[in-house]
Each structure stands twice: as C-alpha cells, then as structure tokens.
Amino acid sequence: xxxxxxxxxxxxxxxxxxxxxxxxxxxxxxxxxxxxxxxxxxxxxxxxxxxxxxxxxxxxxxxxxxxxxxxxxx
Length: 74
Prior knowledge:
Blueprint: E1 17-22, E2 28-34, H1 36-40, E3 46-53, E4 59-65
Antiparallel strand pairs: 1-2, 2-3, 3-4
C-alpha cells in the first residue's frame, strides 16, 4: 500500500468507466474503469472486461482487476 512521505503527496485515481458496444445487435461490450458496486463497499478496483448479452437475456462477463495484486509467497 502507498504511504505518502508528507501531506503534499497524493494519488490521483480516475473514477468512472469507458465502454464500447460491438456487434450488429450491440450485444457485446468491452469496458474498463471503476465499478459503482466496488466503490459503494469501499474497494477501489480498476477492471478491464468483456460482456456478452444472449438473446434470452442472459449475460456473461469476463473481467480482471488491473493491475493485478500479486500474493506474496512467505
């Protein structure tokens, strides 16, 4: 975790997301940014993902936090 050296240090993190709809039916989405769900519980995660909307209303979503947090091996 980042710890500032003085009161003048800060981290600027953009909030929000960008999304691009793909396909003739606009049923495919590529997105990146922060999720409102994560922010409401106090998590600050930057996601990169792909979503597909099926005709029957089902959605599938593949996402990965960016940058990925690596677990330390102790």
